Here is the input.
Amino acid sequence: MSIAFIILLLPLVAAASILLGIRKKANLSAYVSVASAGICFLLTLGLIRGSGGEAGAFTWLSVGGLELKIALEITGLTRGMILVVTLVGLLVHIFSLGYMRDDAGKARYFAGLSLFMFSMSGIVLADNFAMMFIFWELVGVSSYLLIGHWFQKNSAAEASKKAFLVNRIGDFGFMAGILLLWGATGEIGFSALRETLEVQTFDPSLLNWAMICIFCGAVGKSAQVPLHVWLPDAMEGPTPVSALIHAATMVAAGVFMLTKVTFLIIAAPVAASVIQHVGALTALLAALMATQQSDIKKILAYSTLSQLGYMVMAVGFAGFLHSGEAVGAVASNAGFFHLYTHAFFKALLFLGAGAVIYACHHEQDIWKMGGLIRLMPVTAITFLIGTAALAGLPPLSGFWSKDAVMAVTQNSTPLLIVGAITAFLTAFYMSRLCTIVFFGKARSQAAREAGEVPLMMRAPLVILALGAVIAGFEFAYGWFIAPADLPHPHGALPLVLTIIGVAGIVTGYLLHRGREKDPIRVEVLVRKFYIDEFYLFLVRVFQDGVAYLAKAVDQLLIDGLIVRGSARLTVGVGLLLRGLQGGNLQRHVFLFGVGIVIVIYLITIALG
Amino acid sequence: MLPYYLEICVVVLGSLMLCMELFAGRRSRAKIAMVGVAGLGVIFALLMFAVCSPGEDLQYWGIYHFDKWAAFYKGLALISTLLVLVMAREFAPVFKHYTSQDEEKSGIGEFYCLPIFVCSGLMWMASAKDLVTIFVSLELVTMGFYVLVAFMRRNVGSLEAGVKYLILGALSTGFLVYGIAWTFGVSGTFNLEELSVVLAGDDIPSAPVMFAFALLIAGIGFKIAVVPFQIWVPDVYQGAAMPVTAYLSVASKAAGFIVFLRVVDPFLAAPSIREPAIYLMVFVTCATLIYGNLAAIAQKNIKRLLAYSSIAHAGFLLMALPALGAAGTIAGPGPESAISFYLAGYLLMTLLCFLVLTVVRVATNGEDLTALEGLGKRSPFLAFAMLVGVASLAGIPLTVGFFGKFFLFNIAIQNAMQNGLWIVVFLAVLGAATGFYYYFKIIRAMYWEGSVSEGEVTGLKVGRLAMLAIILLVVAVFFFGIFPAPLLGLTL
Here is the structure.
């Protein structure tokens, strides 16, 4: 059994042993889970130094031309991703030891984390679509369990349900896409697909449709417009979960999957254009919404949406035709590079937010905080480092990766402008957040009483801050992407981006310094473009309309008279007779006859 | 051992149980159900080890065929009857409430015997490849169900359902016979194999053949509940006793489908009528998918909800039909295998749900979604079992329902790429997504709705046999959801 298999299965063993055995012993459960994450990280260090290739394939199901295999594939990007998953995973596990110390459902929480680690590793290591899809669903389940961890809270239960259902919509498209692709090419493994596409030519419209369907999966999981609505609500889960699942790893799975099928994006230019524009739209809209939120986690959630939009946009450029030639893997490498650096600074920001929330007795409203830099300096400084990285200030990691992404968008001026505006907004809302939370004076009792968090929670912050600083340098990423394979910006782009970042930060600081409430209030942004309301309206119309229609058909046409409900339980032959005399049964028979007539009528049409 | 001994064994078992009911004392009468369960178990073992010889197609007297499909569907009939008996035993208190508290007058022993006779009919259906045999075995099954549906004689709902089922069933039988008569008139044969030879000929008049086809579809479509012949389903499902509903929705549907496949096959294989026949099938499929899924949304009664969902499942199953006898090849399991696999999975998950619902029904006396409220706190395991069943019905990966849907969608998509029937795939995707919504209502009721006060937190009472069945079904749903190969292997 290879190292990769152990990395995959160890968290499953941990989750199973917690759920089936030691659930009653909360502390032991937590240590088992943390230990499994730790061992996985150490094994990962071994794995990424070794050679790549496939590991331990065995056939899962083989029926007439359909062969599903359990096989792990280790390529360059896989190594980067598995490192992110296990490293951030480990730090979040450790942070959780402090954050969830007194939680009643601690064992359940850690079992959920381990289950998540198992499923996420599965997505990263899978060498074919079928296996990836299964793990894709499993991360959905574990995310559902963790968002709804505090299920006694109605909002948490609702949020977990929303996340699950919205993801299902995307996943159906994903599955349809996989089947389409498989039907067209007869292959389901990534490398086999790539080879087939190289030697054979397929109907481009079919590939476009297949790619768009597959992209639906990424739209759901990576929370792109229009399925982005679940991610902000998912912040109802414990904050470490938000850091791990809803910032660094699971939501990035959509982007990761897209980078794995870069060859397909290149072959499907229409789908590629859809991907670019969806990504750009998400980046811009989410950044706008982030500027007007007052919940610290929601701001970070919208920021995550926006950054995911960047990545998706970059990956979409792989199929962009630049003077007759696709931009190619360079573009998806840029997207992945941003995923990699983003994992560090966004996990850092979320854990920092978790520390702030913990210190302020679970207060999440930034307008009730203030002046925290004096009370919790380590948290504040690491948070500021994360902010600077996100705003793209040199020489922090975010600067390099944002440069790479923007270099790709230089192929298309409108998207370049969208990217630049988003970059400004990013710096602006983060500066707003920091100014209000860490500077000025405390705005509530909770903020005045805050103190530095325990070492168990500080240590992950410091390590991630280090990552946020160095992840953009060649020695930190060169082992999975050669620098030559990354796009290089033309002209003064890096300088312009730096100026935009600084301008955003300064504007944010000057506008919000010493304020008690937002100086600018844009209702449409506060209400998130009314998208949630719109969906609610759609659902209501759908439910009320269609369900009413269905019920009307059911009750009026088919039941005829009301003999349902409570009457059913009462004993009396009279009702039965009334039901019969009232034409209930006659109507049934009549409808049956109508059915036959329809069928025969159709036949006469079909026969011409 | 000759395969038709199995049916004889089942009939003997049923007669034996009837004798027990008649002659045995009060104490041994209580064991009738156990005798049935044990007997069916033994017969299933005989099927698996003594008879099973897939690969060969054995024929007896030209009317009884034994091939791998026959073996598979006989197995489904036996297993579902066995589980229905377990369920009926659990349901006994409700029966007595609506019949008579007196053991002798309640006729509960007869209630245990009837499914056995129905089972022999189902098994015979699996072997029927001749229109007359199909008709006779179909009627044997339906007669049994007429009695079973109306069995709770002091429950107006049950009686009403019985009358509706009887009259509509008789009507559909009429159409079926009419269809058989037309088929015979055109082809001069009842035998399906000879029929396919005759229909493949050039000088076949297409109009009367299609007319016969439509009538056959109406007759058999009634049994498997496809639109527009589904009208009876919601009322009868709701009115009948829980075990009977389960039996109708699983065993009757599975046996109906094997007959449906066998009858449709010669028509689809005939070049001159293939196109209009597919046209008709696509219409029926689309209508079934739309109606089943949409109507399920509004339901508050669980049995009614499951009734509509069973219509929807019939729609998914029909998706694979246009691929029957198609020119192109299909990667992965063929339509017959996919349908059989789906039906086997459907059996597991539906009976799992109904077993839990039976327990809930006995304990709370309710059949609405509200009856499930607080189940997550009262009986966590039962709620989990129900969750597994519902998740599988919705087709979530790692449950058997996922692979069932996966194989069917695979066929439908490949088929659509060959002949452009994308509308079916589109409606099926939409339907499956809608399915999540209404199945979720069940989960929500169990875990989030209704506040259970501290004093009320008592587990529901479950019989030992029923508990064992629930555990086995949960394991099976997961096992075949992770390793579908053993089950799929039986159908290939």
Remarks:
- DSSP finds 28 helices and four strands in chain A.
- Confidence is low (pLDDT under 50) at residues 560-583 of chain A.
